[in-house]
């Protein structure tokens, strides 16, 4: 292993002129950058989409478990807008897809009904121009996998199609005074709470699964289920499921051809 | 047991820090004068130059932020640390906090590069960006600190490359034909004012309905896009890629006389890279599973070395 000539010249202070590929921007770490390239892709640019959204109002009955459908829709719609703007930016720069997407929600300090949704990721193209890595319907694929995970996913014979998500904002019932008194001194499950949390999670995951079906995915990897309350009133909680829908590259790579990982014990910590 | 003698106070030390200062620069008043003229004329005081030159030619011990692992790795590539170099600029914001950041950082970077040139370095690695906010009105301290390195058999670089990545990552990038060359900054701010009442609906309309706020949203998008396009221009001076690890954005509402105005500002800081495109890592990558308990040194999803701003990545759950 040696340092390539190009790099040596640069270190000597000889400026290499002309960059036919143009300038790329990305928020990759060094490892991600190297592994995305190793996977056969080149970063083209940072893709950002955002949406500043005003949440509507919905009241929940104090003593009832129920989905806050207005809020569910808002949280979903706003993220979808941010994602589609990000995807539009990627399409504009001719990217095959976006990896390392991060979805964040930020509350505006001056109004708690206004939230900002941000989707940010790095647009990538296949270095050899292979057309087979696009997402659903020839649009750029999106994925929240890191550069490392992206490399590993391709190694295992799958490619990402689309980030899929589901949201459910839920009101968990308060217990009436009479019921609470009845519980004093006894060990008992608060079934209405259990039920509510179960139900909300179930709805979020189901919605995500429907999205995966819509893009004809075989499965969803790297699923994360977030619970957040975004400074709403007590007893209101959002369940948000997000993951990357994947499909086999041609046919699923036979498990025996995937090399065994090596085990290492690192000494530098 | 000379170190033990020192505790007993009966050993004569070869030189104390005080005497070293005297060697190079005379008394404190003289030093101050030298600093003043150096900053004014954009050069380094002669005692700093002298120290760095001595470190560069091996007469003074080298100083490095590297860990032993990194030292081993750089040694393999015949890379030698020389000295820690730094640049500082305490900057007062005149008309703009946002643009002040560009000037502050760039001046500090320029000063650090001067030190590296004085040491005869090829590159500065592991550059950390620091800011100190003391209660001095409308001003901030911008400091960069890094380790100057020299590559064996290579002439000194008149314009040393600046890398925010650690020694380990620096060598990894070089091996792949990519050189981190500097720090690029893109910043933009803009005011959105209530012009002829056109903004009124923005606040009034909200009410019961779910809806995207388009005026504010478009404004914010424009601010960010301008910051990113400034970043691209800055990148253009040093290389062909940017690993933008720091994003700082703020949308503030200012209300005077019931007349809301919005300030949007966005700052992006990136490590510039210069490399051949479509040229992949030259060797196989082995798939390993780390058997360490606790946080693994192999897993470091986001770099944390130059985290000067609270990024908006952390704020709010997803």
TrEMBL record, chain B:
Residues 12-22, 304-318 have a biased composition (Polar residues). InterPro entries: UPF0145_dom_sf, UPF0145_YbjQ-like. Transmembrane segments: none annotated. Residues 1-22, 296-318 are annotated as: Disordered. Gene3D superfamilies: Hypothetical protein apc22750. Chain B. Belongs to the UPF0145 family. This is Heavy metal-binding domain-containing protein. It comes from Dyella caseinilytica.
């Amino acid at each position: 292993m040696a340092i390539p000539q190009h790099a040596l010249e640069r270190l000597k202070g000889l400026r290499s002129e002309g960059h036919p590929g143009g300038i790329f921007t990305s928020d990759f770490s060094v490892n991600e950058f190297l592994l995305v390239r190793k996977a056969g892709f080149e970063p083209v640019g940072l893709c950002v989409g955002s949406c500043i959204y005003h949440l509507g109002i919905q009241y929940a009955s104090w003593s009832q478990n129920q989905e806050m459908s207005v809020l569910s829709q808002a949280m979903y719609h706003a993220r979808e807008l941010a994602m589609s703007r990000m995807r539009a930016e990627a399409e504009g720069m001719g990217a095959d897809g976006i990896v390392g997407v991060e979805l964040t929600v930020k509350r505006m300090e001056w109004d708690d009904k206004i939230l900002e949704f941000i989707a940010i990721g790095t647009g990538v193209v296949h270095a050899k121009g292979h057309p087979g890595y696009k997402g659903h319907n020839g649009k750029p694929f999106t994925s929240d996998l890191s550069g490392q995970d992206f490399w590993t996913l391709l190694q295992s014979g799958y490619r990402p199609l689309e980030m899929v998500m589901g949201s459910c904002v839920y009101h968990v019932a308060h217990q009436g005074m009479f019921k609470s008194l009845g519980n004093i001194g006894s060990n008992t499950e608060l079934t209405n709470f259990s039920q509510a949390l179960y139900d909300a999670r179930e709805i979020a995951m189901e919605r995500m699964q429907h999205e995966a079906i819509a893009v004809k995915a075989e499965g969803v990897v790297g699923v994360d289920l977030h619970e957040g309350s975004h400074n709403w009133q007590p007893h209101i909680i959002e369940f948000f499921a997000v993951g990357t829908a994947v499909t086999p590259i041609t046919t699923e790579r036979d498990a025996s051809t995937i090399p065994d990982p090596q085990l290492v014990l690192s000494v530098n910590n | 047991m000379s170190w033990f003698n020192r505790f007993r106070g009966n050993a004569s030390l070869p030189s104390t820090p005080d005497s070293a200062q005297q060697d190079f620069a005379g008394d404190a008043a003289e030093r101050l004068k030298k600093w003043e003229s150096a900053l004014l004329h954009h050069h380094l005081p002669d005692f700093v130059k002298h120290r760095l030159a001595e470190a560069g030619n091996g007469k003074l011990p080298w100083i490095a932020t590297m860990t032993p692992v990194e030292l081993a790795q750089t040694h393999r590539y015949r890379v030698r640390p020389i000295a820690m170099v730094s640049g500082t600029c305490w900057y007062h914001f005149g008309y703009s906090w946002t643009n002040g950041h560009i000037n502050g950082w760039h001046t500090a970077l320029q000063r650090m590069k001067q030190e590296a040139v004085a040491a005869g370095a090829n590159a500065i690695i592991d550059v950390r960006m620091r800011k100190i906010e003391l209660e001095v009105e409308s001003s901030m301290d911008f400091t960069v600190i890094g380790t100057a390195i020299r590559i064996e058999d290579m002439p000194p670089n008149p314009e040393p490359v600046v890398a925010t990545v650690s020694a380990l990552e620096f060598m990894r990038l070089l091996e792949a034909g990519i050189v981190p060359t500097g720090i690029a900054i893109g910043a933009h701010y803009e005011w959105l004012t209530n012009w002829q009442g056109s903004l009124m609906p923005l606040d009034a309309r909200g009410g019961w309905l779910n809806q995207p706020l388009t005026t504010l949203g478009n404004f914010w998008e424009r601010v960010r896009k301008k910051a990113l396009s400034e970043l691209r221009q800055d990148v253009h001076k040093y290389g062909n890629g940017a690993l933008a690890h720091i994003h700082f954005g703020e949308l503030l509402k200012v209300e005077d006389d019931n007349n809301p105005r919005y300030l949007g500002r966005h700052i992006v800081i990136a490590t510039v890279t210069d490399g051949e495109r479509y040229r992949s890592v030259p060797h196989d990558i082995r798939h390993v599973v780390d058997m360490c308990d606790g946080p693994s040194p192999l897993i470091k999803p986001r770099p944390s070395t130059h985290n000067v701003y609270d990024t908006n990545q952390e704020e709010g759950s997803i």
